[in-house]
Specification:
Shape: globular
Number of helices: 1
Number of strands: 27
Structural class: mainly beta
Strand content: over 45%
Oligomer: single chain
């Protein structure tokens, strides 16, 4: 059994400036955040060399408790920095409590002709997020119903899998099928809005590897997987960031599904080459919308219809005397096809990545590293990120 815990406290002090067509809004922020993360793990293993089988059982509990309070003081100024009107004062106190329970069992059995792997896993998560906002009105703190938000999210995922693997001379084959049942419920107590999800899905995977020689190895694989999003993504309530920036979850967000095929070649354990293609359905993307009257920007989330990514990757690791030379080349061809605000959105792009890592052994036990990377323009959902690069020496 393993017991762990973490405690963290953070103080906040900051200023935010927003320039408007006819004025400037300045807002100062102070606050304190406290975080506690206790966890417990229980592990059991039994094996029989005679019968060539093994059973492992894992039980986990994790708690994430965070509470924070923030105070915001705002003031409008003219473009000449003269004070306009009275100052504004708002504050919030938030308690966030996440409980996660997990139980899994995995079994392996080596038969004469093949190896069998099977398992079961159940995970239950409950999140309770209570955010209370107040604003100063006529010298008194009053509840702000437009920002106060109490949201509870519960998710139960039950999974079962079974797979076989077999080695035939220089070939190794494996295939696995995983079934998952997901039941999720969200409840925004503040606005009395509820939603639920209940679905079953299958996730197959398969691979084949060929050990041509001690110098060259090849592998091919296919995998279908899922990525679910937590309560902060699906919470429908609007969260305050600053006077002109808000954040809102989307209860209609669907989990992201992906299918990937990949081929790799390893040569002398120094040269590693990968060619792959991934197709993601219901890919998550951030969206930004601005109120034309108030100029307030709301950041939210939406599902893209699909996102395709084809890439090639080459890694070369070459020791030079006592130094290690590790260049990395990566080229990607992402493509997005979806509908945004009723308009078809279809865009493709090509980008490249380069990375180099060097480690040096110096006299008297010292070491040094010289690393660098480069990334060309990259399409990220609806946005395009500009070219970026850096060099680190240490």
């Amino acid at each position: 059994m393993l017991l762990k815990s973490m405690f963290n406290k953070r103080d906040r002090l900051g200023d935010n400036y927003t320039t408007l067509p006819d004025s400037i809004f300045r807002q100062g922020a102070t606050g304190t955040q406290r975080l506690v993360n206790p966890s417990v793990n229980a592990y059991f293993r039994t094996a029989s060399p005679k019968h060539k089988n093994e059973l492992t059982v894992n039980a986990d509990y994790f708690n994430h408790r965070k509470d924070w309070d923030d105070q915001f003081a705002g003031q409008y100024y003219s473009l000449k920095e003269d004070v306009i009107g009275s100052s504004t004062h708002i504050r919030n106190y938030t308690e966030s409590d996440i409980d996660l329970y997990s139980l899994s069992a995995d079994y392996t059995q080596q038969f004469k002709a093949f190896k069998l792997e099977a398992g079961l896993k159940s995970t239950y998560t409950e999140t309770d997020n209570d955010m209370r906002w107040e604003s100063m009105e006529s010298g008194k703190w009053e509840n702000d119903p437009n920002k106060t938000n109490h949201f509870i999210y519960k998710e139960n995922v039950n999974a079962a899998y079974a797979g076989v693997s077999k080695t035939v001379k220089k070939w190794t084959f494996s295939a696995m099928l995983r079934m998952e049942h997901t039941n999720a419920k969200g409840n925004s107590l503040t606005i009395d809005q509820k939603f639920s999800r209940d679905y079953v899905q299958l996730f197959p995977s398969a691979s084949a590897s060929y050990n041509m020689s001690q110098k060259d190895q090849f592998s091919f694989s296919y995998r279908r997987s899922i990525n679910r999003f937590g309560f902060d993504i699906v919470n429908p309530f609007i969260t305050y960031v600053n006077a002109y920036s808000l954040r809102q979850g989307n209860p209609d967000i669907r989990p992201m599904l992906s299918q990937a095929v990949q081929a790799t070649w390893s040569h002398k354990y120094q040269l590693f080459t990968t060619i792959a293609f991934t197709r993601m359905t219901d890919n998550l993307s951030m969206v930004f919308r601005q109120d034309p009257v108030t100029k307030v920007q709301i950041m939210s989330f939406d599902n893209q219809t699909n996102f395709n990514l084809a890439y090639a990757n080459v890694v070369w690791v070459k020791p030079v005397t006592q130094n290690t030379y590790h260049p990395d080349r990566y080229r990607a061809l992402p493509g997005v096809k979806t509908v945004m605000d009723g308009i078809d959105y279809n865009k493709n792009s090509v980008t490249a990545f380069a990375n180099i890592q060097n480690s040096f052994t110096l006299p008297k036990g010292f070491t040094a590293e010289l690393n660098g990377n480069f990334r060309g323009p990259l399409m990220a959902g609806y946005a395009v990120l500009k070219t970026q690069g850096n060099v680190d020496l240490g």
